[in-house]
Specification:
heterodimer, A: mainly alpha, 0% strand, B: mainly alpha, two-stranded antiparallel sheet, 23 helices, 2% strand, transmembrane helix (chain B), membrane (chain B), cell membrane (chain B), transmembrane (chain B), Multicomponent Na+:H+ antiporter subunit D (chain B)
Chain lengths: 125, 519
């Protein structure tokens, strides 16, 4: 199971990096979404994959009767999902505003903050 | 919540004693900022109240952090466990000298910026939530400095990142949106890298508590992929701290928002990256940092020199400051690349100096630009004649940022050069001095052209007058820089304590696990 998930995670990372290297913001956004999921899979795989029961105690027991699954990676992933979802939502709205305001989603043409031909500093006093 | 008749021995599972009253100081900075941030969000329709409440809260935050630093210097690192769980299972807030020192400086900077914002952020900005974002940013920054758990550090990074997005786009001008796109995507990639590294960290160690990680490093088998892990952390935090060559988001975005937002960012955000680099590099994985020290040294030299050269090439005041921030980050990385506590102490003093001075500089340049009517260096002129106090403050800050005595920039540079020479890294000391020299030229030329040059025939009609009240926060931060420059012993002593606590973290571990546990 672990090699399969590891290969899948690697593929996700490859797709995400490929998309993030694009000039177009919409592709970068999809890259961000895939990157988030790649990380979630990675954490899940790192928390060891077990086909065990959830860590719920039976009545009258102080400790679980058998080995139980590790709940911590799931808690970590849940946090990461919530955070990455909110970031994705923010970036989506930001990109929409940028597209409306700047009239392009090509990052090569978004040159307001860094003009193509920058003003040179004054040479003389 | 087990009943008294529970068969489980609670003393083995949870912290049974209530923490001392003074220990509550550990979580107070974060709780205070989040609580007031939420309150201000509810008071959205009362813009007049927002500034006053935010300023009062940040004033209290400074006091709380001062109390925290007094507590830490009296009794060593302090830990508080969330939800009474025993370490390493609960989430820990652990404060040592370095965290307390950075947290105090950050709150001072935030207070000064809030004071400046009273006259700078108009009602529209207040309605768009400047003050709630400011307080949530401070919650994130304080949380990052105080967290004792790597995943928690990640969460606080995200809190400060999303607040900084909010601050960056207030006003939604086109250039702000443009800058925010670059800042947003690149910083999100950096935090995702941080999360990847944290996933591997959990896979390798099975714990996320920093003190527990320090304990477990020697017990790991040699085959554990620690080098990969540390390289990932260095890359992620290097991107956050704006280290060469992953720093181009900074000059692309820092000059776009309102000047007070730029001042906050320049003072706080990159230093959180430096803090995280020190925490992971020096405290958690000293051996791996040692093997990577040449790489870090080269990165530090390039960051310093490209920052200073970039500053020389700028014709816009605010863009020039962005490159000065980068140059300072390079100097801080020098301390990270050197082994031993001396370099680390230099980095910590440099961090405190850089927080105070870079924020003050942005605020001063904001006033100068307002006064001159333009942020283009070539279009300003005669500021010296027209506003002597502002020009004098700016000149002091320029001296300080270039590392000239007797201002605060001198001592950390001296410490770093000494530490580099002591370890035979003469080229690194030379790079520090050359970058200081280039920075002096860049700021000197800036001052000469924009301040000293007579107004002449250049049009300077649009400038506003600058009231003495607007000068107050700049003057206060400049005074702090002068005081540190003239009387540096307390800060240097605190930084040395902090650096020793980082390089030999036995007291840190002890504060988390209690005295009876052997490290």
């Amino acid at each position: 199971m672990e090699p399969v998930l590891a290969i899948l995670t690697g593929l996700f990372f490859a797709f995400a990096v490929y998309l993030l290297l694009s000039k177009f913001i919409i592709r970068m956004l999809i890259g961000v979404a895939i990157l988030g999921n790649a990380v979630n899979l990675l954490i899940f795989t790192n928390g060891r994959l077990l086909r065990e029961v959830p860590p719920v105690l039976q009545p009258g027991l102080d400790v679980p009767a058998s080995t139980v699954a590790n709940p911590l990676p799931q808690a970590l992933i849940l946090t990461a999902i919530v955070i990455s979802f909110s970031f994705f939502a923010f970036l989506l709205v930001l990109s929409w505003r940028a597209y409306k305001g700047l009239g392009t989603d090509n990052t090569d043409r978004m040159r307001i903050t860094e003009p193509q031909e920058p003003v040179l500093p004054p040479e003389g006093y | 919540m087990a009943s008294p008749a529970s068969p489980i021995d609670l003393s083995l599972a949870v912290v049974t004693e209530a923490p001392d009253a003074a220990d509550w100081l550990v979580v107070l900075p974060v709780a205070l900022c989040i609580g007031t941030g939420a309150l201000l969000t509810m008071l959205r329709s009362r813009p007049a109240l927002q500034g006053i409440i935010a300023l009062a809260t940040l004033g209290i935050l400074v006091l709380v952090n001062a109390g925290l630093i007094a507590h830490v210097s009296a009794s060593g690192p302090v830990t508080m466990m969330m939800g009474r769980w025993l370490p390493p299972f609960g989430i820990a807030f652990t404060v040592d000298m370095m965290g307390a020192l950075f947290s105090l400086t950050a709150s001072v900077v935030a207070f000064a910026c809030a004071l400046y914002s009273l006259g700078d952020i108009n009602e529209k900005g207040r309605r768009h939530g400047f003050y709630p974002f400011l307080l949530l940013l401070m919650a994130g920054v304080s949380g990052a400095f105080l967290a004792g758990d790597i995943f928690n550090l990640y969460v606080w990074f995200e809190v400060l990142l999303i607040s900084s997005f909010g601050l960056l786009v207030i006003g939604s001008e086109h250039r702000q949106i443009d800058g925010a796109v670059k800042y947003g995507f690149l910083n999100l990639v950096a935090t995702t890298l941080f999360l990847i590294a944290t996933g591997y960290l959990y896979g390798i160690f099975g714990t996320l508590n920093m003190a527990d990680i320090v304990r477990k490093v020697p017990t790991l088998p040699d085959s554990a992929p620690l080098m990969t892990l540390v390289a990932l952390y260095l890359f992620a935090f290097g991107m956050k701290a704006a280290a060469f060559p992953v720093n181009f988001w900074l000059p692309a975005s820092y000059h776009t928002p309102r000047i007070v937002v730029s001042a906050l960012f320049a003072g706080l955000l990159t230093k959180v990256g430096v803090y995280a680099l020190l925490r992971t590099g020096v405290m958690l994985f000293p051996a791996e940092r040692e093997s990577l020290s040449t790489v870090i040294a080269v990165v530090a030299a390039f960051t310093m020199l490209t920052g200073a050269l970039g500053a020389l090439a700028q014709a816009d005041m605010r863009r020039l400051l962005g490159y000065l921030v980068i140059s300072g980050i390079g100097a801080m990385l020098v301390g990270l690349s050197l082994s031993g506590a001396d370099g680390v102490a230099g980095t910590i003093v440099y961090g405190v100096h850089s927080m105070l001075v870079m924020s003050a500089l942005y605020l001063a340049i904001g006033l100068s630009g307002r006064h001159a009517g333009s942020f283009a260096i070539a279009e300003a002129g005669g500021l010296w004649q027209r506003h002597l106090p502002l020009s004098a403050l700016t000149l002091i800050l320029f001296f300080s940022v270039s590392g000239l005595p007797p201002f605060s920039g001198f001592w950390p540079k001296l410490m770093l050069v000494k530490a580099a020479l002591a370890q035979g890294a003469g080229w690194l000391a030379a790079a520090l001095l050359v970058s200081g020299f280039l920075t002096t030229i860049a700021t000197g030329r800036f001052f000469l052209i924009a301040y000293w040059r007579p107004t002449g025939e250049r049009a300077v009609g649009t400038g506003e007058t600058v009231s003495p009240a607007a000068l107050l926060p700049v003057a206060a931060l400049t005074l702090a820089s002068i005081l540190v420059g003239l009387y540096p012993e307390p800060l240097i002593a605190a930084a040395k304590t902090a650096a020793e606590g980082l390089t030999a973290p036995s007291t840190y571990i002890q504060s988390v696990f209690g005295a009876e546990v052997k490290p």
